[in-house]
Amino acid sequence: MTLSSTKPRPLIAGNWKMNGLAAALDEARAVVADLEIQPAAARVAIFPPATLLSRLSEAVGGSAVLTGAQDCHGKPNGAHTGDISAGMIADAGGSLVICGHSERRTDHGESSEQVARKAEAAIAAGLEPIVCVGETLETREAGDAVAFVVAQVRESLPPSVAGKAFCVAYEPLWAIGTGRTASVDNIIEMHAAIRAELAAIFGEQGKAVPILYGGSVKPENAGEILAAAEVGGALVGGASLKAVDFLAIIRAV
Ligand code: PGA
């Protein structure tokens, strides 16, 4: 996917994580039905578990809802039991992929260097990567959050994203799944630092790359977060599992 010259629409991305059996497709269908009545101002994407990607892509096919995967391998194919490649994601109907989510970095020890390879593989397969960064509570309390996250941005983005569509998602680890949201001031400070780094690396393109916020985004706080400076969308976990909540967040743009 090549970047358009206009400023991208915000992206509301629903990360189902390791949740969802076939019945969950009805939630996605409900999102589609609602957006058909009233189109969204934002781009909307759902990231189901890999087992549902193909069925979800068929269920929402032809609608405004995009689909993607929660991870991909850095190589196009080979002896990597249990992994899926970016090409497989595209083959299953996905057009985006989350790279370097903190749960992957923590549970699977993924380094920023590996994340960059995944994003590179995504670009090579024509997918739009969402590259995740974020600090632990310990790092924040030590006063190192901005420097840590800026370094993650630099190390997790491969040069091949230049000129292509991609997003960065800032997700402080202490706000994920905890019900605890970063304050709007925290978000504004971090997004400004990420924006400066993106502009330094990618020039004009870096000034427009969407920077999503993630971490306990819910209907009650989405409006305030999405209105904050340099917030180009949201990566939503728990509140994306139910159509009614996810739609409320989509409508907050
Ligand atoms: P949460 O997850 O909305 O459940 O906090 C966000 C994410 O990890 O993408």
Structural overview:
It is a single chain. This protein has 253 residues and is α/β, with parallel strands linked by helices. The protein has a single domain, classed as Aldolase class I (TIM Barrel). Helix content is 40%, strand content 15%. It is built from ten helices and eight strands. Helix 1 runs parallel beside helix 10. It is globular. The mean pLDDT is 96. The structure holds 2-phosphoglycolic acid. The site of 2-phosphoglycolic acid has 13 residues, from strand 8. 2-phosphoglycolic acid (PGA) binds next to strand 8.
> What is the residue-averaged pLDDT?
96
By secondary-structure content and strand pairing, the structural class works out as alpha/beta
Radius of gyration: 17 Å
Tally of alpha and pi helices: 10
Instruction: List bound small molecules.
Output: 2-phosphoglycolic acid
CATH-scheme architecture: Alpha-Beta Barrel
Tell me the CATH superfamily. Aldolase class I
Major sheet: size, sense and barrel closure? Answer: 8 strands, parallel, barrel
Give the total of beta strands: 8
**In what range is the share of β-strand residues?**
5-15%
Distance between the termini: 24 Å
> What is the ordering of alpha helices and beta strands?
EHEHEHEHHEHHEHEHEH
CATH topology: TIM Barrel
Shape: globular
